[in-house]
Amino acid sequence: MTKKAENVIVGISIGDLNGIGPEVILKTFEDTRMLEFCTPVIFGNVKVLSFIKKNLELNCNLHGIDNLDQLVIGKINVLNIWRESVNIEFGKNDEIVGKYAIKSFTEAVAALKQHKIDLLVTAPINKYNIQSEDFKFPGHTDYLDKELEGDALMLMVQDNLRVGLLTDHIPVNEVSAHLTEELIRKKLLTVNHSLKQDFGINKPKIAVLGVNPHSGDNGVIGKEDDAVVKPALKKLFEEGVLVFGPYSADSFFGSGQYEKYDAVIAAYHDQGLIPFKTLAFGGGVNYTAGLEAIRTSPDHGTAYDIAGKGIADFNSFKEAVYMALDIFHSRTEYAEITKNPLKIKEKQL
Question: Could you please report the per-residue DSSP string of 221-235?
Fold first, then answer.
């Protein structure tokens, strides 16, 4: 049965309390119309969020709860996952605050796995202060890949611009060693399925960027594109997956080629995210494709330099909520039509 819009439960991890995460969360739901689309539950502490709300002079009503059975539809629920007070110093890199950020995130993931929430939107964390004996992951995506079924893939999205990565948070000098035909195949199949299931695109077209300058210039500038990337793409194309490339990355975005494709897959982090954030910064969304559950986040970090000043732009976080809801409904529809092949034909006509 399809859920009513306001009954879709959006779990939210609080992010770094000294950054702009709590601000963009509260600003998003300060507009009560958002509660017509979903019911949020913030994993944190209602007293801490009330302090931040007062400091930023925001106008929203918070409903504190001690377990998810107490959740109230149409309210901004705050699940108290700790009781002690926290010293908030906006703009400060603090290991103690980092521990609370990860506690919020891991508790939210546990609720997601138990289907107590329908989807997850994560506020920004500081990748340095979250590290501990219990949490040794570069960021959200790697932990989600371990905890949830599927193969996680970072997909940055704004409207019809979608940029994914073959490798993400690894040093540049290790990129070539990680790129194998098996990895490329797995990532591209993940993107292809996500475009169908999560974005409603029946026959997605995917562009792949070359690893080396000018895609290696036929082996003159590196062998990876000819030896690894091209064979992987050829096999997938022969199987009916519409993959194209590898394209020279330096001119791909500037020439507008990206507009011809439903997704663009870059070889490594900065190759994909620099052009994406240049084109979409402030309105983009980070979506973790390929998993059984839905997780999105804004395309920015903790922004310590403006934290606590009340000037943070919340548009990217709001878009992350919208996108998570759109994907939730798209997956529901996809599940229904794939049960009945006749509905697929009707949709294609």
Answer: T-SHIIIIIHHHHHH
Instruction: Spell out the per-residue pLDDT of the chain, length 349, in tens.
Output: 567 777 999 999 999 999 999 999 999 999 999 999 999 999 999 999 999 999 999 999 999 999 999 999 999 999 999 999 899 999 999 999 999 999 999 999 999 999 999 999 999 998 778 777 777 777 788 889 889 989 999 999 999 999 999 998 788 888 888 899 999 999 999 999 999 999 999 999 999 999 987 775 566 567 888 889 999 999 999 999 999 999 999 999 999 999 999 999 999 999 999 999 999 877 899 999 999 999 999 989 999 999 999 999 999 999 999 999 999 999 999 988 888 665 555 555 5
Secondary element (H or E) of residue 12: strand 9-13
Q: How far apart are CA 267 and CA 245, in angstroms?
A: 12
Full-model pTM: 0.90
In the chain, what's the furthest Cα-to-Cα distance? 64
Contacts 24+ apart (CB under 8 A), 313-318: 313/24, 313/282, 314/23, 314/24, 314/25, 314/27, 314/28, 315/282, 315/283, 316/24, 316/282, 316/283, 316/284, 316/285, 317/24, 317/25, 317/27, 317/28, 317/121, 317/123, 318/24, 318/28, 318/34
Whether the CB-CB separation of 292 and 149 falls below 8 Å is answered with: yes
Identify whether the C-beta of residue 78 lies closer than 8 Å to the C-beta of residue 60.
no
